[in-house]
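Here is one chain, start to finish.
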Amino acid sequence: MPSAIWVGGALVAAASIALPSYWRTASAREAARVWTRTIESPSVLQPGDATEAAIAGRDCADKVVDGAVAESLYREGRFYGLSLLQNAVCPEMVKLMRADSLKLHQLGRLTPSGDPDEPQLSEQYKKYFGSLPVLTILKPEDAAAEGLLGLAFGGSFLSGLCLRIGELTGQTLEPGTLQLACYDGEGVSYQVHEDYVPKEDYDPERLPEHHRFSYKRRITIILYLQDQWSEGLGGAFRAHAVRPEGEPDLQNFVDVLPDGGSLVMFRSDMPHEVLPTFGQRFALSMWCHAG
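Its structure:
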């Protein structure tokens, strides 16, 4: 399998900049563009019910994140604490989460806006305008009630990560929105954006419920659910040091392949995008909110 990270052929240290006070801790330090750890994923027994799935998810979160991982998110540097944990979840649980994701996708539960009542894109729309990523907003308890034990595990895992990071850094973080997204090939991509949006920049009442608290987003966590992936399938997560104007400079971005079981975390004001995708790419995400 190819390396999960490439940065113009090199991984180098970035120049530090001052961060707003609410994004940093006293131990913030200069670091490379992306803080990376490859771990031996904790083994998880197949959960027999929703309670076991939730317990296993939180237990896995506690094992995956230690002080070094948590503090990496608040280090100084141009890439907003970008951190990558490879093999964060064992292959068996990744397969279970992906199976649940495929089930929801086949049932038509994933739509461009996340509204389950929104119609699916027609072939005519795709022909003239291209395809779009589709998503659904989940609650761990709903996944459990539907017997989706993989996604019940995933929701508990990501929620546990938010709480664990807060405990280890002294930040007040709360689990926020849980989102399942699918980029179903056909060159689907997502434009450069930030997850955090200042409250004064939008009217929450005019947005879907899952976007109303964008001003509270502090840490973004993304877990990839592929069986296998290759560079030829595209779909890389691209992190930007600054919003690009035209073609980005090689020194100002990092690409990460969406390998199954990999976990990407960063501060939510980082510009990022998803590059054109030519395979079925699932990702389970959560925004950790300020308490």
